[in-house]
Amino acid sequence: MSNPKRLHPAAMIFSVIHSIKTSIFSLLPIVILAIGEAKWIYVVIAAGALVTIIIISSILSWLRYTYQLEEDQIRIEQGVLIRKKRTISKHRIQSIDLSQNIIHRIFGLTKVQIETAGNDHKIDATLHAVTMDEGKMVHDQLKYNQVPKDIEVDTNEHPEDEKKHPSRKITPKALIIAGSTSGSFGVILGLIGLGFSEIESIIPDRYYNHATDWVFSQAIQILILLAIVALIILWLLGILVTLIQYWDFTITRYEKELFITRGLLEKKQSTIPLKRIQAVGVVETIIHQPLGLAKIYVDIASGEMGSDSEMHTVLFPLIRKSEVQNFLRELLPEYEYNIDQWISLPKRALPYYLFRLAILPLIVTIVFYFTLTDWAYIPLIVTILACLLAYFQYKTIGYEIKGEHLFIRNRDLSKDTIIVKHRRLQAMKKKQHFIQKKQNLASLDTAILNKFLGRHFIVRDLEQEDVDKISDWYSYQKNRSNI
Amino acid sequence: MRNEPKERIALDAMKAWKITAHLVTVIAILFAIAALVIAYYVEFIPYWIGIILLVASIILWVVSAWIIPKLRWRRWRYEIFDQEIYIQHGILIVTRTIVPMLRVQHVDTKQGPILKKYGLSTLQISTAATTHEIPALLEEEASDLRDQISELARVEQDDV
């Protein structure tokens, strides 16, 4: 039991910044109109008034916002005109995360996010600014079981704790590799594309030797140089962003949850209750795959909607492929896997894969051949690349069933290995068009829940028997009447 | 290899689909006529656009009103077991779906004006991640099934 408490006064700063940020976006058009008509004096007055209102309302709402820890619940009261009281029971709390951005760190504060099991994220509660000690106190008080009692922002302070709870930390070197290879894939593609276009711009030079053309091509080359510089800067920025996001990435396994801390400027904690994990995935992008590297992620039910546009939750940004099994054994033994022999696609499936990917570029190539013959090699290259990709898809795709786990190895562009438990699959479909039927092939489509939406795993053109086998494995109706 | 589901949907489904097809065709033909009228008044728009549209909508009419409903009905099957729902549909691509009762979140029946005319309604089964439909069941049958499924699905659910 404790008395109602207010947030740290710095919470007002956050609320002012937040309100100004949102109102600027909505008012910007009006402001631009007003300035266009040279009525900027009104704009200044209006802005002043708005800021005053925002500041006053922030102070009021700070005054009216109190929270109170009780034996096994937290009670929050808020609202200036409409009073809202909310009580969250300790048993309903899924996770409590502490995070600090720059302002928090200046004042030695923390933000406390309390997430409940409900699908409606509005019922979750956030204490925007409390002191660090207070935050830890709230965390410890409300934790449904007191096992991970001594969670610290910096787990290194408790070396004896780390022995009990397996933990992994990313090295700065791995982060730099992750930054320079993964997110910037598009940029690298762009660089290659530019390389091509430069070759093209050189070829016509032979045909047109006039001085003007030479100057013109010079200019183009300077432009290309600038573009390359810009791309390199973007690439470096990409590395920087990765470093800032994942700096000091540490994942720790507690009895019923995974706990992640990360971030350079903004220290973020997140808790993943094991119950909420729907599937585990290992992604190897086409740059990472030859280097033997991978990223591990999980799909979780719900999570903070909107605040995070990422589909998946990263469990580890970059890891050696050979280490993945050890990682899972240590931190997530529920999803450990060890598969030597994937059940892959039959040879008959290859034409379908080739057709699906290569048909469009092939048509374009043919059209180009008859119209713009000189340029026909561009779609031709695309066609060849598409065929290659299709072949790799065909080679990669496979599945395996072990006990209650289904393993799917899939590829769009990146290789993605997914591990999912039987009870997490929401439904299963077997699809078969009439040509597949003749060839005894079928496609599989199954779905899991991911952030309130479904994520479908589709495996095309498997052996029909295999699809039936998976369906039988999935079926809950073991003693079917119609066998 | 698993057999087809046993139950079929109501015979009147074909009639309902036919009417829907008629309505769609009427709209398509209206578009075609509009194109012809515009071609009459506006010089640079040729007549053949309207003619192609008209021909296409008539083909659409024949296919969607007389061929598709029959094939579709013949393929549509479902079966409700204690533990799961088993659905088959699709003309060119045959899809067989298994929805475990454990995963069912809620069941709805719905009915538009065309289905209402024939006393039919559609059963919609939602899991946390997917939605499945059994179209055009007899009203009573649909509501019975809805209650039956929600009864069977009423099992202690662990987290999602």
Automatic annotation (TrEMBL), chain B:
| Transmembrane segment boundaries | 21-41, 47-68
Keyword Membrane in the entry? The reply is: yes
Where's the YdbS-like PH domain?
73-149
Pfam annotation, one family: bPH_2
UniProt keywords, alphabetically: Membrane, Transmembrane, Transmembrane helix
List the PANTHER family.
UPF0699 TRANSMEMBRANE PROTEIN YDBS, UPF0699 TRANSMEMBRANE PROTEIN YDBT
* Protein name per Swiss-Prot or TrEMBL: YdbS-like PH domain-containing protein
- Say which species the protein is native to: Gracilibacillus dipsosauri
